[in-house]
Amino acid sequence: MDFSGLIDNFGPLTVTGLAQGAIIALFALGYTLVYGVLRLINFAHSEVFLLGTYACLFAWGLFGLDQNSAAPAVGPMLLYMVVGLVAAIIVSGAAALTVEFVAYRPLRRRNAPPLAFLITAIGASLFISEVVGVATHRNQTGVPPIIQARPVFTIGDTTVTNLQILIVLLALVMMFALDRFINGSRLGRGVRAVAQNPDSAALMGVNKSRVIALVFLLGGLMAGIAAVMYDLKIGVTRYDAGFLLGIDAFTAAVLGGIGNLRGALLGGLLLGVLQNYAAGLFGSQWLHAASFVLLVVILLFRPTGLLGESLGRARA
């Protein structure tokens, strides 16, 4: 264990962890939304994210951008960011809806057992991942330098870059917007009603199928935004990019309280920071193992997660 390395790099590890945790939190929202309504773990959500990472690359490629392009000026950079976000949101949202319509809805109509949903989710995940792997020849794809990471301010020996600030702020804004939508809008009340009691909600005129499609769509939108931030931060993507990050996002959702939107944000930020601390203390090879150790410890004392409040009981 390298305590001196952890202490010496405490600030940089914290800032980097917050940026990574913000991406995990956005990713985790898809898991927590679907589980909150269906009590289903949508393992295909990691591939919804994966498609978003390629969608923005395709959109940027239409402008002739690749990993060897020069960093654009502020005006073009803003345009490329908007185009990339729109492309990723559309593709990830459409992918999430397609998974719901093709894989899950037929099972719900037949009242299939939970195991059938689990197997279907894993099958859909593997199918999408393998299709992308064949299409890309299983090679890494570089990301154009849309945003050049530049120092904005320094605290002690910790430098905070514009990209890190953008990632964290965007995650907080999207989390706040989604929380307000779920707790303050008519559609959001329908989501909470179905999450709390689907049969009673149906008697009150809530269309369960539309609500389920809505939560898949919302989860896909959040995954698309997370995908763009992931591309900009990591700089490459590949056919299995969603796998490990998907495990981290699922861990974050359970850690914060699966089915709880605010818990997903808390779990993601906490997990990102603690993973970095573990990497600084034990080495980077222990980064993902540490997240599961943390999950087990938390669940021993808080079986419902840190916040532990279900989507159906969320308060405005």
UniProtKB/TrEMBL annotation:
Specify the protein's topology with respect to the membrane. Multi-pass membrane protein
Keywords (alphabetical) are:
Amino-acid transport, Cell inner membrane, Cell membrane, Membrane, Transmembrane, Transmembrane helix, Transport
CDD domains documented for this protein? TM_PBP1_LivH_like
| Membrane spanning residue stretches | 20-41, 48-65, 77-103, 115-135, 163-182, 211-230, 250-274, 286-303
Q: Where in the cell is it found?
A: Cell membrane
Tell me which InterPro entries the record gives: ABC_transp_permease (IPR001851), BCAA_transport_permease (IPR052157)
| Main localization category | membrane
Sequence similarity: Belongs to the binding-protein-dependent transport system permease family. LivHM subfamily.
Q: Which PANTHER family match?
A: BRANCHED-CHAIN AMINO ACID TRANSPORT SYSTEM PERMEASE PROTEIN LIVH, HIGH-AFFINITY BRANCHED-CHAIN AMINO ACID TRANSPORT SYSTEM PERMEASE PROTEIN LIVH
Q: What is this protein called?
A: Branched-chain amino acid ABC transporter permease
Source organism: Paractinoplanes aksuensis
